[in-house]
Amino acid sequence: MAQSDTDVDHTAHGQSMGLLRVLGPAHVWALGVGIVLVGEYMGWNFAVGKGGAYAALIACWFAGILYSCVAMIDSEVTSTVAAAGGQYTQAKHIIGPLMAFNVGLYLVFAYTMLEAGNAITLGFLVDTVAGMTGHEGGLDQRPFIVLAIMFLAWLNYRGVLATLTFNLVITAIAFCAIITIFLATSPLLGAGEMLHKDLMSGQASLPYGWLGILAAMHFGLWYYLGIEGTTQAAEEVRSPARSLPFGTLAGIMTLLIAATLTWYICSGLMPWEYLGDGVNGAVAPLFSAAQISGSSALVWLLGIGTLFATLASANGCINDASRAWFSMGRDHYLPAWFGAVHPVYRTPYRAIIFLVPIALIFALGAPLDQVITFSILSGLLGYTFMPINMIMFRKKWPLDTIKRGYEHPLHPLPAISLMALCSVTYFAVFLGYGTQLIAMIGFYIVVSLWFHFWRYRFVKRADQFTMPWPRPRGY
Amino acid sequence: MARYIPPVQSKLGQIIDVIVLVVLSVGALFLPLWLGLAGSAKLPVPVENPTWESLGQNPVMVQQWNKLGFPDAASAHDMITARYDYSFSWVSLAVMVIVIVGYFVMMIRFSDIEYREVIAEKFGEK
Amino acid sequence: MDTWNYIEYGAWALSALFGLLIVIDWIKIDTTYTEEMLTSSREGVLEAMTEKHKLEGGDGTI
Q1: Among candidates A37, A322, A315, A306, which has minimal Cα distance to A164?
Q2: Is this complex's ipTM strictly greater than 0.90?
């Protein structure tokens, strides 16, 4: 770690102190996949509960299309707008300050809620392990929830290179665990214990009919939510124009494989009613699948996989949420105090510290599916912003005006598909979680008014536009 | 165009702004919970004297339920019969569409006003 | 009391330790350096340099 602190010192050029450029494409992959992979270990199975196993598979693939669009769009914009803050900075340059403020909050909310969800799952896992080893009377899960958040905050505080190298290792292990249980239970190599045909027959095929497929899109996002976080590393990657598109697109491919395998394993072993109940039933479905398989080696492997996946995700979330919060502080969208960089570790340390108690409030005080729904909703609002962003980007700066590190094909098809899929997902959330949807939008409307009429007065106007671009067309 | 010089915010003002944001965000999550409005209610539909057959479970499903630690139909009854209620009114759907679209329209409008100011100051008036 | 109860206490203690480490360092840094220096990071400064390197080195890497 010591070497990362003094490795490349950009401040030698001037008196300003910034983040360090130390990351490579593998770290970008680890940040993206690390945040998301936990989605295969917990949470996605609520989609089974909302529509049955077939619906969850269809949702998995449609959400896969949605995220491929997200990854393509994001890669193009971010290969050009390479700054910490990711989509926040994109919105600031392309749409305008209020949009940027909202996008910044989407990011912080989506990641902080996801972090809380991870900590809750970790607490549950420790409790289960304690039960399996013969502990009576249940365990107090709170110390483990607090410890996970504190440890990862400390790691993030100490420097980005060590943080993401740690993520790379534990994410790779968690991914290998999914491959291993697939090989061990599928007819390819193992005993072939898959029972899809019988478990998905009769009433279990589509318990809610076609409406269930729509409803399942809600939690279908969970298979991939967070992959867009790769852009947050833009200020810390050695060559963002190349590493970010590469890491992001490799990440989405990894996730498409992992998501499909996970669905195949779990739906072939558990009745959908159990699998779909993520609160009293399969809280950690892959772990439950290992328990059913009866192999204690698999139980250990998937237990460790679940543990690592939750840690990797929470770790990446702290990294991303604090970058977004820091960038908003730096532009005075939030109190300037948050825009500080640690002079030794080169991390946005005050943003990291501030978000610790926030994450704790949600991790200790709210049920898992509510926390996940809030995270998904914030993510969804962010995905709705992306097609608007892309269309405006190509309009204000056509391809020949600025050089892009990556140009996505078939514009505006991805933007339009993304918008359509977002609309479907809003409807899916509306089915069953309409109150939260309205509460959430109500919150964003109130803070938008607060920002426009009060907070924006503390922001310097022209200084926000930092990219070396020509004047946008039409302005 | 004259350069806009923002006022310097006092320490107290900064703290108040942060408190406002935290209260709003915590409120947005916990208000539906406290008011008991949080949807997601998946309610069991009771079946008298449940048997595996009356719950629609075939032998393979029963075998997997047993492996999961549910020895008889009664123990799995609540989980098997729980269903979401997807009935909705078109009025509430319309309200949701208006709220979401209205939110985005408002945001893009205000953003554009602010954006024109930024561009004018950065690149000069046209 | 079994091992797991001790592990619970251990987890509380470690949480407190990490929290303490962060807070101590935070206070140390905030009292050692000036506020101007700590908040001197500017968006785009690094980009301006990357651009420069692009012109010099040709491939955009630093």
Answers
A1: A315
A2: no
